[in-house]
Amino acid sequence: LSLVEREQDLAGLHVVVSTGGTREPLDPVRYLGNRSSGRQGTALARAAADRGARVTLVAAHVDDGVLEDAMSPRISLVRAGTTADLGEAVRTAASGADVVVMAAAVADYRPAEVADRKLAKESSPGARTIELVETEDILAGLGRDRVPGRTIVGFAAETAPTRDELLERGRRKLARKGADLLVLNEVGWSVGFESASNAVIVLGADGDVAVEASGSKRAVADAVWDAVLASRMDRPA
Ligand code: CTP
Ligand code: CA
Question: What value of ipTM does the predicted structure carry?
């Protein structure tokens, strides 16, 4: 499709996109975080807005300048720090939404206890053990509490040695999450995170490859929205 033809093909849809990395506090000055820049999710939000959707962008920690570059009058921004905050914000925004895309890099664990004073070396000389507990799985929750007509899209960043293994891991994850689409992203130390471009395979609910795309994060974002539209046509509300 040309740019002009698909210009407003998401008009009338309300989409929610989460982006960035959640941070789990350890004490008043420290957290457990990850290297997500928030660029892919933010590009998804901008692409949807440019194609006519109303967008709620739920942003955890993102790199400086990323959000500013992507803002549009059709995007409303909600900030969230921790996984619990992000879960709340996504569920609130998702009520009445047509599509929810979980592009955020969500912490899998959080410290079991948050110290109310800065942890001092003196209190644990030589080594320190920090107990972690699992966070809630926001995407799996959305997959469980399905609403007719709502499309749920997950992301998975995997480090698999072969394409087959990548697809196999993706299929298992898709089933575990109960999502309609899973955007599979192979990451290493130099690909995906913190980089300007990306390569993804989008799996449909049946586990088949729906779309493959590579290039700028915007190009990948447009391909993901194409896959969302196609899956909504296959299974109308
Ligand atoms: N996700 C989520 N809540 C979590 C963890 C992940 O909503 N607590 C979402 C992510 O936003 C992403 C998808 O689930 O859309 C897959 O995340 P990923 O980290 O690949 O999957 P996990 O289930 O956490 O499995 P693992 O990290 O062990 O591969
Ligand atoms: Ca994870």
Answer: 0.99
